Amino acid sequence: MSKPIVRFAPSPTGHIHIGNTRVALLNALYARREGGTFVLRFDDTDVARSKKEYADSIETDLKWLGIAPDVIVRQSDRFDLYDAAAERLKAVGRLYPCYETQEELEFRRKRQLARGLPPIYDRAGLKLTDEDRAKLEQEGRKPHWRFRLEPTNVTWDDLVRGHCHVDCGSLSDPVLVREDGTYLYTLPSVVDDIELKVTHVIRGEDHVTNTAVQIQIFEALGAAVPTFAHHSLLITASGEGLSKRLGHLSIKGLRDAGLEPQSVASLAVLVGSAEAVRPVADLNELARLIDFSHISRAPAKFDESELEHLNARLIHEMPYEAARERLAQLDADAGEAFWLAVRGNLTKVQDAVEWARVVSGPVTPVIEDKAFIEAATNVLPPTPWDAATWKAWTEAVKTATGVKGKALFMPLRLALTGLDHGPELGALLPLIGPERAMARLSGQAA
Question: Which residues are involved in binding ATP (predicted)?
Answer without folding.
Answer: 244
